[in-house]
Amino acid sequence: MPRLPTRSADIQPGAISGGRRAGPEDTGVVDLQPAVRAVQGAAEGVLQGREEDESRKVLVQQAEIRAKYAKRLDEAATSGEELGKIREELDADLSRVSENLQTRKGLETAQMHAANTGAVFDNQANNIAVTRARLEARVEGSKFISNLSAQLVRNPAALSSALQDVDAFVGTLSRLSPEQQNVFKQEWRQELNATAAIRLGQIDPEGTKTRLQNGEFDLSAEQRAVALGKTEQEIRAQAAERERVKLEARREEAEKVDSARGEMLDGIIKGKVRWADIRDNPAFAGPQGANAKKELFLMMEARNKEMASGEKRSNPVVERNLWMAIHAPEGDPRKIYSATPIFEAVQRGDINTATANQLNAMVANQKDENNRTIGSHMNGLMAVVGRSLSQDPRYIGQPGIVAEIQMDYQDRVTKRVAALRAEKKDPMEAFNPASKDFVGSREFIQGSIDRVKGNAATTLPRAGAVLEFGGKKWEFKGGDPAVQSNYKEVK
Fold this sequence. Notes:
Elements: H1 24-27, H2 33-79, H3 83-98, H4 104-154, H5 159-170, H6 178-203, H7 205-213, H8 221-270, H9 275-279, H10 287-309, H11 316-326, H12 340-348, H13 353-365, H14 369-390, H15 399-422, H16 442-458, E1 466-469, E2 472-476, E3 487-489
Antiparallel strand pairs: 1-2, 2-3
């Protein structure tokens, strides 16, 4: 390698001027430091500008990336998209930001903001993961608890085992915080306790009510109130059911008794029933049967007396009143639903057994809707006829004749209805004013008046005869039996 030539010079010490250090101007040497500093300043300015440009671009790109992935996470929260895949895409975008950066500040800015963006992403992603885990636990837990509840409905004694299953299930929810796990555990345990308590309240309401009142079962205040309410409702419902069964049994027994009593009574009238037939009838084995047997025995005695001494005519007023009571509308205090008042009338001697048999059949027919409707129409017409006759001067004070006319009218109406049925016609035509079969016409009613007056003319009472009307006894003094003054009350 060539060697550069060297030179030497003798420099004499210069004189000190004014006591200052010698400068370049004293030595004749040119000072380049200002120029160097200027060049360095210019270079540093260029570098600073480039760093600022890169940092600015990094900030803009990072903001765009952060906004992009914040939106992706919002969408993933509802779509269920896999979060790890989104994180990988974020890392790739962040890496591309650092490519082609030439300044240290640009790189440092990119690294710092990439870390911040990643931290923000991870925090939001973690919240989504926790929410997903909570929702998943809620959905799976609901199915799990539903199955356990179904088992407890079948066997509420298995509550302890079901609670252990809940504890084991909650132990698998590792992605949830301990606090959230305890919330689920408490909620599900109380739900199972409520299911078991309500079911036990159906099986043993009285005992379960006591246990609930004593604080047994792990329940919230609201759940305990609900369980108590359902248990008390069950107590009332079971009591009502017991009463319903009792009443239904009583109703069924009454139907059997009424049916058998009607058959026996008809047999008594026809002379085909013996006491043994009544005494040993299985329909009379229950509590209501005892009274029916007593009534039938009295009817048998009354029928025997009638056969021995001749059948006495029924009191038309009593017969009419019983008929009206049978066909009275629902809710009318006069309405009767059993044959007891009929049998009592036989015992008093007010009606004979044949009339009692007819009236008893009417009571039974009232259980049929069609018969009940026809009876209601007949009752209305009977009342109209009765009011009209009672206001007629010819019948004032003669309730017996009025009642006889009414009963004759009723008998003819019944026959008209039966005839319509036999002809396959609507029996309600008898109550249609526009029908030729209408039984409310003046002519039809007059027919009963004429029939009763004709019978009365052939059976005039003799002077001194004692008749019974309206529950009182009257002695006929003679003359026209249609004149009220021709009677005097027998005290």
